[in-house]
Amino acid sequence: LRLLDKYAAAEGSRPERIIPDEPEEVANEVHEEKMKIARPKVCIGFKETHRVGGRLLLRRNIITEIALDLIIGPGSDLYNSLYEKELLDDSFSAYHLGHLEFGFTVLGGDTDHPDLLVEAIEEGISQVMQAKIPEVEVQRIKDKIYGKIVRLLDNLEQRCLLTIRALSDGYDVD
Predict the structure, then answer these.
(1) Rounded to an integer, what distance in angstroms lies between the CA atom of residue 58 and that of residue 169?
(2) pLDDT mean across residues, the chain
(3) Following CA atoms 30, 36, 41, 42 in sequence, which dihedral angle do they give, to the nearest 10 degrees?
(4) Which of 65, 69, 87, 173 makes an SS bond possible with 141, Cβ 3.0 to 4.6 Å?
């Protein structure tokens, strides 16, 4: 970043970050496509509508990752219940991406019963939001995330990517 500042000063200007306006509304509540595939696929998306940057963005990303693991992670009651009912399988995943300009969460995978899976996940999210989560469970997931970050920092390429992302999102990795 210091090199960029030095170069920008030499050229007389610093690049301006242009962030287009993003409507808060979801463009399509439901989108379906008919395809010739063995099993239906389903994705449930959640759009973040409030932009934040810096440490607030980092905090929101970590909290969202903790929430995803609590609600629908492979060790959660909801995941195991849906797995036993054969509404989801090993293809199921939950993913969050939060940046300065946008953020979203996607849950999905293969299922023979897409509508039932969506309904069960929505109901499960509602139940978890109303439940008291044991602190020991939250701490277990925090430790898992910290371990993941430490492993990333052990890899030079991943450390560079994390540093670039942190700087572009407005926080320092130190």
Answers:
(1) 8
(2) 85
(3) 0
(4) 69
Distance CA 88, CA 112 (A): 8
Please enumerate in sequence order all residues whose Cβ is within 8 A of that of 65, keeping only pairs 6 or more positions apart, or say none: 96, 145
Sorted by sequence, the CB contacts under 8 Å of residue 3 that are 6+ apart come out as none
pLDDT of residue 102: 84
The predicted pLDDT at position 13 comes to 63
Q: How far is CA 158 from CA 10, 65, 77, in A?
A: 30, 18, 32
For the chain, give the percent of residues with pLDDT over 70.
90
CA distance 103 to 46: 9
Closest CA to 165 of 98, 96, 94, 95: 98
What's the pLDDT score for residue 1?
58
Sign of CA dihedral 54, 55, 56, 57: positive
CA 97, chain centre distance (Å)? 4
Q: Model's pTM, two decimal places?
A: 0.77
Contact between 142 and 66 (Cβ < 8 Å):
yes
Which H or E run contains 146? helix 135-153
